[in-house]
C-alpha cells in the first residue's frame, strides 16, 4: 500500500529525469546550471502559487482565482509605488494582507454558505480581475530602486548559472509547504478533509477553520506569487497571468496529487513545475517548434498521469480483492 | 397546461431575476424595449440580447445535461476554438457549406465522445477528464489554423449562420432556440431526462437498477461537444474568421454560471434546460446593460461577480434552510390564531 502511495511521485520523477536526459542527448548544452537557474527563475511565480493550489486540491477543493489574484497584486503594487512614496516592503505586506483576507473570505463563503469551491472561486476570479481593471487597464511600469536591488540579488552557481532571489523564494516556499503538509496538525487536517469531509468532521477536525485556512494560504501564496511576478516583469498589468490557474492545476496533477483530494505531495508539484518548464525550454532550444506545442504536450502528460493514477487505483483494488479471496479460502 | 404552470412556478426566481435586470436596463437606457423592423429584420436591444447570448445559450444546453449527471465539461470553450478552426479551414479549402458544417459537427461530436470515454470508461472525475481537452484544445486549434487567424470574408453562406436573419429574427437565436426545443423534447418526452437525473443522484444505484449509465454518459458528453461545435461555428461565422486564441475563451465558465444561475445544482440530479437558458439570458442582459449604461467596461467583471454572488447566496442551501425556518416559524402562530378564533 505504501508503494502505491509513492508510485505517482516516483513516476513523475522518473518522467522528469527521462525527459531531461532526452533533452541533453539532443542539446548537450542543456546540461548546465544556466538552464537550471533559468528554469527556477522563469517558473518561480507559477511554482509558488502551485504550492497553494496543492493544499487546496489535497483538501478536495479547487481555486480558480489565483491567476487573477497574481494580476491584481502586480497592478496594486505598481499603482501604489507609482502614486505614493511608501517603501516597497510595506506595499508587499499590504498586498499580502489583502490577498490573504480575500482567500479567507472565499473559504468562509465556501464553508458557511455550503457552496461549491468551483463557483465561489470563479466569482473570486472575476472579482479580482475586475478590481485590477479598475486600478489600471494599462501596463504600469515599476522603476523603484529597491526593485532593481532585489532583481540583482543572486548566487552565482558553478558554471555561470544564476540562482536568483525569486528562484530561492520558490524553493523555500516548497520546503516550508512540504513541512506544513507533512509535519503539522494543519497539514494532517488538510489531508483528512480531502479524504472524507464527514469522517474528518466526526474525528474532530475543525472543518470550518481548516477550510478558511486553506483558502487563506492559497490567497497568501497567490499574493506572494504576484510580488515575484512583478519582480520578474518589473510591471503590473491587469491582463497578465490569465490561465495561470490552469497551469498550476496541471502541475499539481502531473506531480501525482489526486484531484479528488486526500493523496499527494507538495514535492511532486515541484517536479510538475519542472516538467512544464522543461517542455518550454526544449521548444526554445529547438527553435522551429511553435509555442502551442507546450499546451498539447501538457495535455498529453495530464492524460498519461491521470490514466496512470486510474491504473494504480484499479490494481490496488484488484490486488486487495484477490488478497481477501485468499484470506477467505 | 397544469404541467406548464408548475414548471413556470419552479422557474419563478430566475424569471423574476431576469425581469428585474431587464427593467434596470430599461431604466438605464429608455429605449431598451424598443424593437423595430428594418430591411426585413428586427433591431433593438432585446434582439441583441437573444442574438449575442447564442454561444452561451447553446453551451448551457449541453452543460445542463452534463451537470445533471453530476459532471462538468470544462472543455467546451476549447472545443469552440477547435470547431471554429475546422470550419474556417474546411470552407477556405473550397468544401461546400454542407460538407463544412457536417465535418465540423463531426469533430465536435468526436471531442465530446473523447470526454465521454474518459468519464464513462476510465471512470475519471469529469472535472479532470475535461481539463485535458481544455488545456490541449487551444493548442490543437492553433495547429489547425497554423497559428494565424483564418478568415473567410468571401463565403457568404457560412457568414449567414453567424449574422444572417430568418423571418426577421437573427440566425444565431433561431439556431439555439430550435436546439433547445429539440433537446427539451428529447429528454422530457421520453424517459431519458429521468434516467440522466438518476445517474446524477446516484450513478452506482442507477447502474445496478438497469440504467445504461455508460452509454448515457457517452451521449450526454457527445451532446455537449455537439452544442459546443454549433456555438463554435456561430462564433467563427460572426467574426468571419477563426481565432484559435480567443474563440470561446472563458465561455465554459459563463456556461457553467448560466446553468447554476438557472437553478440547477452542481451536485447533479433534477435539471431544467429552460432554467439554464434563462440564466444565459440573465448573463447576456447584464453584459448588454453594462454596455448601454456607458459604465467603463472595467466595471463589467465586478458587476458580474457581484450579481453572481447575490444570486448564489440566495440559492445556497444555508439561506434556503433559513428561508424554510422563517416560513415554518410563521405557521404555528397562524395556527394558534386560528385556534384562538
Task: Tell me what you see in this structure.
The complex is a heterodimer of chains A (329) and B (341). Chain A is 76% helix and 3% strand. Chain A is mainly alpha-helical. In chain A, the strands form 2 sheets. Chain A has a two-stranded antiparallel ribbon. In chain A, strands 2-3 form a two-stranded antiparallel ribbon. In chain A, helix 1 runs parallel beside helix 13 (266-286) and helix 3 (44-58) packs parallel to helix 8 (165-183). Chain A is globular. Chain B folds into 2 domains: 41-294, ABC transporter involved in vitamin B12 uptake, BtuC; 302-341. In chain B, strand 1 (36-38) and strand 2 form a beta hairpin. In chain B, helix 3 crosses helix 14 and helix 10 (192-201) packs across helix 12. Chain B starts with a helix and ends with a helix. The interface between A and B is large, with 42 and 47 residues. Chain A: Its main location: membrane. Chain A: One of its GO terms (molecular function) is transmembrane transporter activity. Chain A: InterPro entries: ABC_transp_permease.
Amino acid at each position: 500500500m505504501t508503494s502505491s502511495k509513492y508510485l505517482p511521485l516516483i513516476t513523475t520523477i522518473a518522467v522528469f529525469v527521462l525527459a531531461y536526459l532526452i533533452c541533453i542527448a539532443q542539446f548537450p548544452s542543456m546540461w548546465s546550471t544556466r538552464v537550471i537557474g533559468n528554469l527556477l527563475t522563469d517558473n518561480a511565480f507559477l511554482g509558488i502559487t502551485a504550492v497553494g493550489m496543492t493544499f487546496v486540491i489535497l483538501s478536495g477543493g479547487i481555486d480558480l482565482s489565483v491567476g487573477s489574484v497574481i494580476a491584481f497584486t502586480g497592478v496594486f503594487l505598481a499603482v501604489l509605488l507609482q502614486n505614493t512614496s511608501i517603501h516597497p516592503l510595506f506595499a508587499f505586506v499590504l498586498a499580502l494582507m489583502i490577498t490573504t483576507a480575500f482567500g479567507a473570505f472565499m473559504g468562509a463563503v465556501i464553508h458557511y454558505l455550503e457552496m461549491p469551491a468551483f463557483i465561489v472561486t470563479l466569482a473570486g476570479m472575476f472579482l479580482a480581475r475586475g478590481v485590477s481593471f479598475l486600478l489600471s487597464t494599462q501596463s504600469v511600469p515599476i522603476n523603484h530602486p529597491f526593485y532593481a536591488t532585489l532583481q540583482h540579488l543572486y548566487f552565482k552557481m558553478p558554471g555561470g548559472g544564476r540562482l536568483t532571489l525569486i528562484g530561492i523564494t520558490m524553493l523555500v516556499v516548497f520546503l516550508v509547504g512540504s513541512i506544513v503538509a507533512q509535519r503539522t496538525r494543519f497539514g494532517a487536517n488538510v489531508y483528512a478533509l480531502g479524504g472524507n469531509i464527514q469522517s474528518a468532521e466526526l474525528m474532530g477536525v475543525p472543518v470550518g477553520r481548516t477550510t478558511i485556512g486553506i483558502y487563506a494560504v492559497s490567497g497568501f501564496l497567490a499574493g506572494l506569487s504576484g510580488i515575484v511576478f512583478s519582480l520578474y516583469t518589473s510591471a503590473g498589468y491587469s491582463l497578465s497571468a490569465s490561465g495561470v490557474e490552469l497551469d498550476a492545476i496541471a502541475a499539481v496533477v502531473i506531480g501525482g496529487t489526486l484531484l479528488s483530494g486526500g493523496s499527494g505531495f507538495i514535492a511532486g508539484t515541484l517536479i510538475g513545475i519542472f516538467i512544464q518548464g522543461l517542455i518550454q525550454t526544449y521548444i526554445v532550444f529547438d527553435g522551429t517548434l511553435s509555442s502551442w506545442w507546450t499546451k498539447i504536450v501538457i495535455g498529453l502528460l495530464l492524460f498519461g498521469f491521470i490514466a496512470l493514477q486510474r491504473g494504480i487505483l484499479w490494481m490496488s483494488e484488484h490486488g486487495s480483492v484477490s488478497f481477501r479471496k485468499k484470506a477467505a479460502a | 397546461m397544469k404541467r406548464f404552470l408548475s414548471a413556470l412556478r419552479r422557474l419563478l426566481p430566475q424569471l423574476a431575476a431576469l425581469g428585474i435586470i431587464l427593467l434596470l436596463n430599461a431604466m438605464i437606457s429608455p429605449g431598451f424595449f424598443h424593437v423595430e423592423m428594418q430591411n426585413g429584420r428586427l433591431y433593438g436591444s432585446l434582439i441583441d440580447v437573444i442574438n449575442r447570448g447564442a454561444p452561451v445559450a447553446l453551451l448551457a444546453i449541453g452543460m445542463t445535461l452534463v451537470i445533471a449527471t453530476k459532471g462538468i465539461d470544462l472543455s467546451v470553450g476549447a472545443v469552440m476554438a477547435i470547431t471554429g478552426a475546422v470550419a474556417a479551414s474546411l470552407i477556405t479549402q473550397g468544401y461546400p457549406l454542407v460538407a463544412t458544417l457536417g465535418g465540423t459537427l463531426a469533430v465536435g461530436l468526436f471531442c465530446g465522445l473523447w470526454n465521454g470515454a474518459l468519464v464513462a470508461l476510465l471512470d475519471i472525475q469529469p472535472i479532470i477528464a475535461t481539463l485535458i481537452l481544455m488545456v490541449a484544445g487551444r493548442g490543437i486549434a492553433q495547429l489547425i489554423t497554423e497559428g494565424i487567424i483564418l478568415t473567410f470574408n468571401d463565403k457568404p453562406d457560412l457568414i449567414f449562420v453567424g449574422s444572417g436573419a430568418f423571418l426577421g429574427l437573427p440566425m444565431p437565436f433561431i439556431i439555439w432556440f430550435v436546439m433547445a426545443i429539440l433537446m427539451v423534447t428529447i429528454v422530457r418526452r421520453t424517459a431519458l431526462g429521468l434516467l440522466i437525473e438518476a445517474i446524477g443522484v446516484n450513478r452506482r444505484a442507477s447502474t445496478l437498477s438497469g440504467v445504461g449509465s455508460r452509454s448515457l454518459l457517452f451521449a450526454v458528453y457527445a451532446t455537449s461537444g455537439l452544442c459546443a461545435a454549433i456555438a463554435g461555428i456561430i462564433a467563427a461565422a460572426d467574426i468571419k474568421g477563426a481565432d484559435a486564441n480567443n474563440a470561446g475563451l472563458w465561455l465554459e465558465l459563463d456556461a457553467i454560471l448560466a446553468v447554476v444561475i438557472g437553478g440547477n445544482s452542481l451536485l447533479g440530479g433534477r435539471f431544467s434546460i429552460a432554467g439554464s437558458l434563462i440564466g444565459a439570458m440573465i448573463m447576456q442582459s447584464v453584459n448588454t446593460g453594462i454596455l448601454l449604461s456607458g459604465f467603463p467596461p472595467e466595471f463589467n467583471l465586478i458587476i458580474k461577480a457581484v450579481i453572481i454572488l447575490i444570486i448564489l447566496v440566495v440559492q445556497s442551501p444555508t439561506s434556503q434552510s433559513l428561508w424554510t425556518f422563517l416560513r415554518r416559524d410563521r405557521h404555528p402562530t397562524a395556527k394558534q390564531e386560528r385556534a384562538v378564533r
